[in-house]
Amino acid sequence: MNIILLGAPGAGKGTQASKISDGFSLPHISTGDIFRENIKNRTPIGMLAKSYTDQGLLVPDEVTCQIVEERLGREDCKNGYMLDGFPRTIAQAEALDKITKVDLVINIDVDFSLLLDRLCGRRVCKDCGESYHITKLNGETKCARCSGELYQRKDDNPETVQSRLDVYKAQTAPLIEYYGKKGIVFNVEGNAAPEAVYAAISAKLNALK
Ligand code: AP5
Q1: Which of 14, 62, 75, 173 has its CA 20 to 30 A from that of 148?
Q2: Does residue 194 contact residue 16 with C-beta atoms inside 8 Å?
Q3: Which residues does residue 151 pair with via DSSP β-bridges, in sequence order?
Q4: Backbone phi, then psi, for 159, in 5-degree steps?
């Protein structure tokens, strides 16, 4: 099954992607993670991406689409995949339609009032990418999954988060209608605890098996 995870920054896409990947053996492809890896390794793509991600703006479509097309062509995507953070514009969705068929779009719907706190309190594992919220860590600085060190993302500060939310509303939210017209959107309420959100998603995925 080919799945897209849609939702505002902080909606819980990465959190749910990790659970879905474990539960349904689907490769988790996050364009944000790909850019962060390139930034860490100081590649040309990373240098370009950094100038956008630091401001909470989108990396240009041509660059992003090329990366995704290459990634989806790899062996591990032959039997399905899960995209997290792509597409983010109508142009990206149209480019994706030319290379693959999307079966399901999971739209995680969260009150915007929760997102600033979720993002500014987020800590991420530098090794496996698992996300935590600082209020649940009780001072722990290592990942419960792999013991990697936890860090705060550079774009998780109030000013950049506001910019990311504005970009989401203007450029990404229209995708709900784009995929809605194709009849493949599954809306899930994302205000609940991660386990409850995952229960709703896994019930849907099991029903489609
Ligand atoms: P990206 O890494 O994709 O960031 P994002 O979309 O802003 O999403 P986040 O990763 O911040 O949030 P999330 O929904 O995954 O939330 P999470 O599960 O971690 O992109 C970063 C940048 O890269 C972009 O700004 C852009 O510059 C560039 N980029 C990426 N893709 C691109 C594209 N396609 N085109 C162009 N540019 C692109 O959860 C957040 C927090 O909330 C965590 O602390 C978590 O523990 C907590 N939490 C999660 N779920 C719940 C819950 N149900 N209840 C309570 N707390 C919860």
Answers
A1: 75
A2: yes
A3: 124
A4: -65, -45
CA of 14 to the centre of ligand 1 (A): 6
Contacts of 68 by beta carbon, 8 Å cutoff, 6+ apart: 29, 31, 83, 86, 92, 96
* Best residue among 47, 133, 150 to mutate for probing ligand 1, ranked by most atoms within 8 Å of CB: 133
Predicted TM-score (pTM) of the model is: 0.95
Which of 13, 19, 36, 118 is labelled catalytic?
13
Q: Enter the DSSP assignment of 155.
A: T
Q: Quick check: helix, strand or coil at residue 55?
A: coil
The predicted structure's pLDDT at residue 173 = 98
Q: How far apart are CA 145 and CA 179, in angstroms?
A: 34
Domains of the chain: 2-110+185-208 (3.40.50.300)
Tell me if 161 sits within 8 A of 153, measured CB to CB: no
Closest CA to 108 of 37, 6, 195: 6
- How far apart CA 175 and CA 194 sit, in angstroms, is 23
Nearest ligand 1 atom, CA 30:
3
